[in-house]
Specification:
Layout lengths: L2 H7 L5 H23 L3 H9 L4 H30 L9 H35 L8 H19 L28 H29 L12 H32 L13 H35 L6 H15 L14 H13 L1 H15 L8 H24 L1 H7 L3 H31 L5 H27 L16 H31 L38 H8 L13 E3 L5 H17 L3 H19 L6 E3 L1 H12 L3
Antiparallel strand pairs: 1-2
């Protein structure tokens, strides 16, 4: 085999890479054989690969996120194994750099984002009384572009080499001079493809929420999850074009020889830092704000009370969105901007704690004197409050420019970051999954297994990251693959490694819960097993493909609670049923996934002619869509009545 081919497939004897290549190959063979044996190719194509149903697209986002959680978690375990003892040689420096780079990118962009966008896709149209999103086919394209980017990024580990300049990919380290391989090409191209899909999602949900709300649902009667998703979509549209430009300039520098960021060619490395964090800090709130909306729904439902301070909650999320665009320089207090600039951004950073604090008190007052049910979903919400406060308080410490000089390049910052994003996002998606799972699939996740998952994950999380605060204060630097025995860091690093194993066991309990519940859980549940308050629970579990036989009319906040309380419209009369128009499935979004993936792959390897040819395929897809006059289909009255009688238990 030629040397070039060996480099391409990374056949350098590394057992981790060879093992991964074998595992990927066997998994692909297993999937193909399984689908073939069970004769599911037509079903897979018809029901999933070509669907434009927002509910199925949401479920596919969530499935992809679970897979990425596993991949990113494995990276985390490898890092913890390497640092469990002084001067370990489990990973070399280069491999460690690749792993912590891919861990950061995957967990933020390919795990947290699709988890939350998946829940948004499934829940938002139902919460606002709509039958779909505003642009169903664009919604499918959004998912398939995300999926294309995620898969392209993930194959870097076994084909060509992973990015190795950190998830922030700072220049000049990320440039060709210091990173001559193709790893950082994967970063530039794969994230660009996925980011285009995310930008489409933001536009789609802004239009959906503004234009598709049911009769009577004014902005001040929308559920809080819808509000946070709306503000999140606005931030996406405001910030993602900045990252799009930054990644495009990075691509030009690395592949086409320009010098936007290379100092030797007259560029500015700090231009990348500013563009990245102009996107990167709003990105934190892109993932945290929908999570806040999930906690609001869960806490209100299981406290059996209306959310306290609804209007102040809306004001606080708008305030967070505004301030999120004004704090980016706190990510480089140590880079010489000067005391005047640092002071301004220190103040704006501290200010963002005020609206966040408002939300904390609103949740606490919602629970006050409530009849709290300690379901698994509610436990995640309860654990979030004190754990997130630790992340918030340490964030205020880091907001002080002078103090940040001491904290910035240490594990203290890593611990803070995880104490914000894991309670603020991962706890929320677990709460949301346990809460909305019966609406998605028609059965509950097992509560006993759920509580095992909860306690293992919480204990493991705190054991993993709490020691890192103290390691950072003792001087342990981040991004370092080893340390000396004389440093005295070994005991706390070992505690952190043990915590990571417990954390992994918690995730394994969650996966087992999905398996067990899918096989054995009771399917005979009501459409409203939690006694919920919002309109998604007004439909069947799982939701019928047309969402609502009769679009509900809203007169107050917590619309479904009001409907139940006053017995309004719970019964459906045959004469109220009309034909429902829905869009047809389409193979075009999946086609766009394939051609974007091919063009991206060729561009990563700098095969420019092949990339240009594949890009023609993208233009062909756009032209086909321009001449697509498909009018969709109608669901007949008889089918609707039959479906409604079945789930309502009527004859």
């Amino acid at each position: 085999m030629s040397t070039k081919l060996k480099e391409f497939f990374m056949l350098d004897g590394d057992p981790l890479i060879i093992g991964s290549q074998i595992a990927i190959l066997l998994t692909m063979i297993g999937i193909v054989v399984g689908v073939t044996v069970f004769k599911k190719w037509k079903w897979l194509w018809r029901e999933w690969l070509t669907t434009v149903d927002h509910k199925k697209i949401g479920i596919m986002y969530i499935l992809a996120a679970v897979l990425m959680f596993f991949r990113g978690g494995m990276d985390g375990l490898l890092m913890k194994a390497q640092t469990a003892r002084p001067e370990m040689d489990f990973l070399n420096a280069q491999h460690y750099n690749e792993i912590f780079t891919t861990h950061g990118v995957i967990m933020i962009l390919f795990m947290a984002m699709p988890f939350l966008i998946g829940l948004m896709n499934f829940v938002i149209p139902l919460q606002i009384g709509a039958r779909d999103v505003a642009f169903p086919q664009l919604n499918a394209v959004s998912f398939w572009l995300f999926f294309s980017g995620a898969m392209l990024f993930n194959i870097s580990f076994v084909v060509g080499g992973s990015p190795d300049a950190g998830w922030t990919s700072y220049f000049p380290l990320a440039g060709k001079e210091f990173s001559p391989g193709i790893g950082n090409n994967y970063y530039a191209v794969a994230i660009q493809i996925a980011g285009i899909g995310t930008l489409m999602t933001g536009i789609n949900f802004i239009v959906t929420i503004l234009k598709m709300r049911t009769k009577g649902m004014t902005l001040l009667k929308m559920p809080m999850f819808t509000w946070t998703s709306f503000i999140t979509s606005v931030i996406i549209v405001a910030s993602f074009p900045i990252f799009t430009v930054a990644l495009a300039l990075m691509t030009f520098d690395r592949i086409f020889g320009t010098h936007f960021f290379t100092l030797s060619g007259g560029g500015m490395d700090m231009l990348w830092a500013n563009l990245f964090w102009l996107w990167g800090h709003p990105e934190v709130y892109i993932v945290v704000l929908p999570a806040f909306g999930i906690f609001s729904e869960v806490i209100s439902t299981f406290s059996r009370k209306m959310l306290y301070g609804y209007k102040s909650m809306i004001g606080s999320i708008i305030g967070i969105a505004f301030l999120s665009m004004l704090v980016w320089v706190h990510h480089f207090f140590t880079m010489g901007a000067g005391p005047a600039v640092n002071s301004v951004f220190s103040i704006t950073t501290m200010m963002i704690a005020i609206p966040t604090g408002v939300k904390m008190f609103n949740w606490l007052f919602t629970m006050r004197k409530g009849k709290i049910r300690f379901t698994t979903a509610m436990l995640w919400a309860l654990a979030f409050v004190p754990t997130f406060v630790i992340g918030g308080v340490t964030g205020v410490m880091l907001a002080m420019g002078a103090a940040d000089y001491q904290y910035h390049n240490t594990l203290f910052l890593v611990a803070h970051f995880h104490y914000v994003l894991i309670p603020g996002v991962v706890y929320a998606v677990f709460a949301g999954l346990y809460y909305w799972w019966p609406k998605m699939f028609g059965f509950l996740l097992n509560e006993k297994l759920g509580k095992i998952h909860f306690w293992l994950f919480n204990i493991g999380f705190n054991l993993t990251f709490m020691p890192m605060f103290f390691l950072g204060l003792d001087g342990a630097v981040r991004r370092s693959y080893t340390y000396s025995a004389e440093s005295g860091f070994a005991p706390l690093f070992m505690v952190s490694a043990i915590g990571a194993v417990i954390l992994a066991l918690g995730f394994a309990a969650f996966c087992y819960n999905i398996y067990w519940s899918t096989r054995y859980a009771d399917r005979n549940i009501s459409n409203d097993p939690w006694g919920a308050r919002t309109l998604e629970w007004y439909t069947a579990s799982p939701v019928q493909h047309y969402n609502f036989a009769k679009v509900p009319e809203v007169t107050t906040l917590d619309a479904f609670w009001n409907i139940k309380k006053n017995n309004l419209g719970l019964e459906l009369k045959d004469e109220e049923v009309e034909e429902i128009h829905l869009p047809n499935s389409s193979g075009l979004p999946f086609y766009m996934c394939v051609v974007f993936g091919l063009a991206g792959f060729f561009l990563v390897f700098e095969w420019k002619i092949a990339a240009a040819i594949a890009a023609i395929g993208i233009l062909v897809g756009l032209i086909i869509r321009s001449f697509d006059y498909d009018e969709g289909f109608h669901v007949g009255v008889d089918e609707i009545i039959k479906t409604e009688r079945a789930w309502r238990g009527e004859k």
